[in-house]
């Protein structure tokens, strides 16, 4: 049953935007580390860029799994009219996952070989990923956020959707 004031679902829409903002910050930090040449030095968080990169990939994957298995599944149960939109967003997640796999491979190569060779390839992948993420996040915030704000009944909304792992 929907809440009478929509407060919780509206709050979920804001939480989704906040989670996306954190993921935006994390990818921008990675890109800045690459640009500054911090790739093989320790980053501000105390780890190497490769570790930072792998942590980011994990955080984004966790967020998307939480959406696919929790938020989106609940939305489609409550709002079957959103099934097509959700299918498109899940398709985006699969595309993003393939890019994350490539980024993780390049980060592992860089860590294993201690060379800066993969940095340019990682930078290109992250630039493309950031553009896709931004388009995806804006669409998701507009459509899914609007659905949440219009009093979708509260459910068991998963934590990983709203609280990405910090790197």
Q: Give the radius of gyration.
A: 17 Å
CA distance, first residue to last residue: 37 Å
Fraction in beta strands: under 5%
The number of distinct β-strands equals: 0
CATH class: Mainly Alpha
Helix segment tally:
5
How many domains make up the 3D coordinates? 1
Known CATH architecture:
Up-down Bundle
Principal-axes shape call: elongated
What's the overall average pLDDT, rounded? 79
At the fold tier of CATH, the topology name is Four Helix Bundle (Hemerythrin (Met), subunit A)
Helix proportion: over 70%
Reported for the largest beta sheet, the result is: none
Tag the structure with descriptive keywords.
Hemerythrin-like; Hemerythrin domain-containing protein; 5 helices; 167 residues; mainly alpha
